[in-house]
Amino acid sequence: MVSPPDAPLAPVDTVTVYGGAGPSVVDLDSVRRAAALATRAADDLRAAAVRCLGVSGDLVAPGAGPAEATRWLPVEAVGEAMARARALEAAAEEAARCLVASADRCDLLGWRLLRAAGLYLEAESTAQRVVGALVTAGSFGAGAAFGGLGWAGLAGVGVVGGAGMAGHVVGGLLSGGASRTVTGQLGATATRGLAPFSDEVLTGMGSGVALAQPRLAQGRSGVAGGAGVLAHVARELPVLGNDDNGVRVTRIGAEDFADGAVPAWSDSGARSVQEALSRIDSLYPEQGGAPAGTVALQKVTGADGAVSWTVLIPGTQSALPAEHPWDGRTDVELVAGQADGATAAVERALTDSGVGPAEPVTFVGHSLGGIAAAALVSRAGFAERYRVGGLITAGSPTGQLTTPTGVPVLHLETPEEIVSHADGRSASENPRTRDRVTVVRSLGDSASAADRAASGSVVQAHAVATHVRTLDLALGVGDPRVTDVADRISPQLDGEVVSTTFYRAERSGG
Amino acid sequence: MNDGWSPVPGHDRWGAGPTSALAEAVGLVERAIDGLRASGDVEWEARAAALYRAAVAETLQALVRDRELLDATVRQARACQAMSFGHSDRPEQARSAAVPYPDGGRPW
Prior knowledge:
Chain A has about 500 residues and is α/β, with parallel strands linked by helices.
C-alpha cells in the first residue's frame, strides 16, 4: 500500500476508484515490481542530487573551501578560480534540482501505476475515525432532539434534510441573506470541513430521528429510518406539501421547452458515457429550459436493427414537496426505501415508450435521478421485465441499494457535494463488485483553481459538469475498472436511427 | 537502496574531490535509468499500463537530459580543478584531477 503524493495534486491524481474487476494476481505482481523499480530509481536520483550538492564544499580543492584552496594559487589567478568555482556550484545546484524533479516524477509514476491497479491506501486515519465517531454521536443527539420536539422539530429536520439532499438549495441558503462575502466564505469553509464527515453527520442525524420516532421509522435504524420519518412528515404536513401518491406522466414537445425547441442532441446518440451524462443538464428548467419534472427516453436502433434505450433522469428541482415528484419528499422516500413518485414516473414512461423486454436500457441519473434509477433497477422484478443494460449515477447516495449481477454500474461522487453521502455512506463504503464501480474525486486536494473553487461550493461540487470531468479524468488515466464498465455501456448509447421522447411527470391524486 | 545521505563505501572525499562526487552522481543516474527502463517492462494489458510505459519513456528522455547536464557539470569541474591544480604543488590533488573516475573513466 502506498500513500498519495502530497496535496495539491494534479486533477488526474485526485481520482480514486473502488470496486470493479481488478487485475489478476500475475498482473499485480508485475505492477508491484514495476512500481518498486520506479521508487528505487527515484531514490538513486535523490542520492545523485545529494552528491551534486556536496560538490560545492570541494570546489577548488577537495575538502577545502574556496578560501583554503586559493591559498595555493598565485594572486592573479584567485579571481578567475573563484568565478569558476561559483559557476560550477551553480551548475551543480541546477543539476541537483533537475534530478530531484525527475525523482519526484518517478515516484509519481509508481504511485499512479499502483493506484490504477487498485493498490492504494484507503484506510481512515485514527484521527479521522475518532472525529467521525464524535460527529456521529453529536449529530445523533441533534437528530434525537429534533425528533423529540414532535412535528415541529421533524419539520425542521425535514427542511434541513431536504435542503441537504438538494444541493442547489443548500448553496442558495449559504449564499443568501447576509453579506455574500461573509456567508460565501463561511459556506466554503463549512463545505470543505464537513465533507470528510458528512456521512457520519447524516448517519448520526438519521439514527437520532429514527430513535425518537420509532413508529414512523417502522423499525428501521440509521439514515433509512430517519428518512422514513421525514418522508412521513413530508406527506402529512400541509405546509410541506400534499399527500398525493399518484403520478401523471405526459409526453411533451418542443413547444413545452422554454426556448421552443427540444435539446439539440434529441436525434443523435451519445458517443460516450460522459456525453450521455452531460445531456442531463438539458433537463433542468434553469439550464435546458425543460419543464420541471422532465425525463428523456432515447431509442437507438443499430445497423443490425438491434434496439437499445437510454433513460436520462435529472435531480431534485425543489427542496420542498412540489407539484412534481422531483422534490425533497421523493428524496427522503427514496433514501427510506419507500414508494416514490420519480420511479413511478420513469416506469410509466418506459411502458408508454414500448420498451421491449429484450432491449437493453441504460439508466443515467444525476442526484435524485441517480437514486431513482438505482432504486428502480434494484427493485424486485424490474430486471425480469426490462433488460437493464447499464446504470450511471452522479452525485447520488446509492450505497444501500443492491444492483443486479451482470449489470455494469458506474457511480460518480465527490465528498464535497455532501449529497452523495446522504445515505450515511462514503464512496468507499459503496458495494464493490466486479460490475459495480465507484469513482470518487476529492476536489479539495486538486491543484486546479476550478476544482478548488468547486470544493467550497456544494452547488459546483454537485454539478453535472463536475461529475463529467471526474469521469473524463478517470477514463484518461486508463483505470481498467472504469474503462471496463464504460466500454460495456457505451455501445448501447449510439446507433443508426435515434429518436427521443420527453416526458413530464406531475403529482396527481390517486 | 541509497538514501543519499549515507557515506559511500570507498569514497575518500579529501582524496577524490568534486569530480569524484559528480562521477558517483553519474553512476547513480545511470542506475536509475536502467531501473526505470526495466520498470517500463510491466506486464499488464490494461490501458493504464500502456500509459505508464509511455510516461516512463518520456521520463527516461528527461533523465538522459539530466545526465547530459551532469556530464557538462563534470567537465566544468574538471576544468575548474585542473586550473587550481595547475598551480598546485600537491601531487595527490593533481592525480585526482587527472583521473576523475576511479573506475577507469567514463566517456562523455
